[in-house]
Automatic annotation (TrEMBL):
CDD domains: cupin_XRE_C, HTH_XRE
Domain HTH cro/C1-type stretches: 18-72
SUPFAM superfamilies: lambda repressor-like DNA-binding domains, RmlC-like cupins
A Pfam family assignment: HTH_3
Species the sequence originates in: Glycomyces mayteni
Keywords noted in UniProt: DNA-binding
PROSITE patterns recorded: HTH_CROC1
Gene3D superfamilies, per the entry: Jelly Rolls, lambda repressor-like DNA-binding domains
Name of the protein: Helix-turn-helix domain-containing protein
């Protein structure tokens, strides 16, 4: 496969990737058009593959979806040994996985951007979660409790308890989450008293 074939293949894959990213964000073509300044018809033609993507179109789309250009066009790896984690947007919240192995405890950095506020809709599922707030104020609804966590505060809970979290104010919130789908708990070890 020569360089032109490789380029054509990468560009052909952009349309389905754009559609998938928009669906993950639960956005309409009209929402995306308002955010990027690109017309609905052009966005539709890009997603269907009827229009070839250009840099002028891809830059605002990558920004709107919160991904790099490399991620948008699925550029081949360069041999760089660093891990390039790909954020996922679900229900308006950015999930950045910090672990790559399946099973066991999974670590995420979560970001709830400033913008529209959602009403609490507590959910339940199997597992155990530990959260640590980095920036902003995080509102947590946990069973009968409704409280606000500030930077430096942590919480842990069984996810079979109805729970929901969102912004407590207008600013964005960033926090770390350790989640064990099988109910694994985070164990923090403290030094025994008397040792330095």
């Amino acid at each position: 496969m020569d360089a032109n074939d490789s380029l054509d293949k990468a560009l052909d894959a952009v349309g389905p990737r754009l559609r998938a990213l928009r669906k993950q964000r639960e956005a309409t073509l009209a929402d995306l058009a308002a955010q990027t300044g690109i017309s609905v018809s052009t966005l539709s033609r890009l997603e269907s593959g009827a229009r070839r993507p250009t840099l002028e179109l891809l830059l605002p789309l990558a920004k709107a979806h919160g991904v790099t250009l490399d991620e948008l066009v699925d550029a081949p790896p360069t041999g760089d040994p660093r891990i390039h984690l790909r954020p996922v947007v679900r229900h308006g919240m950015v999930h950045l996985p910090l672990t790559r192995r399946p099973g066991g405890i999974q670590a995420y950095k979560l970001i709830i951007p400033a913008g529209t506020q959602t009403e609490p809709d507590p959910q339940v599922h199997e597992g155990y979660e530990w959260m640590y707030v980095l920036n902003g104020r995080l509102r947590v609804v946990l069973g009968e409790h409704d409280f606000v966590m500030k930077p430096g505060e942590a919480a842990e809970f069984d996810t079979r308890t109805p729970h929901w979290f969102g912004r407590a104010g207008e600013e964005s919130v960033e926090f770390l989450s350790l989640f064990g789908s099988q109910g694994e708990r985070a164990h923090l070890r403290a030094k025994p008293k008397g040792r330095n």
